[in-house]
Amino acid sequence: MKTKLLAAVVVRFAFTFWLSQPTYGAPTDDVCSLRPASQLEKTLRESFGGPQKLKAPPAYRGQPVGTHCTYTAEKKREIVVFIVYTDPSAAEAKETFDKLSAWFPAKSKPSVGDSAYTDSRKAIHVLKGEVATSSPPTTQARSSCSSSQRQ
Questions:
Q1: Global pTM value
Q2: Which of 6, 25, 122, 149 is the least crowded, having the fewest Cβ atoms under 10 Å away?
Q3: Predicted pLDDT at 138
């Protein structure tokens, strides 16, 4: 029950905070800096360390790398992960998003962003303009994360 509630709150966090960025201008190079741990703490009512930024492999060959933004709770050792990909255009992002949905079949389709769905693993996938964000279900941290890699 607590996991379902926490997952629902994370989904709300993604919708409310991550996707509330203005749609003008190019996205920042450091997408993790868009959402400081203080916003996650306010939403989940738990203390989190700053985001750990790691490279995410390209969704497909020839596409840009993405970014894993991992936040670790300081007391319960739970983690919240946002995986963010920015394509050169909204059309390319939609094409990639649609292709990836074949690998992660939709269980529900909330009305958020330009397109969104949750999959059977309870991960949320959201497309807004040229940015696609996925947030796997919240889990307990298994070990400390390695040092950040710069993109």
A1: 0.69
A2: 25
A3: 64
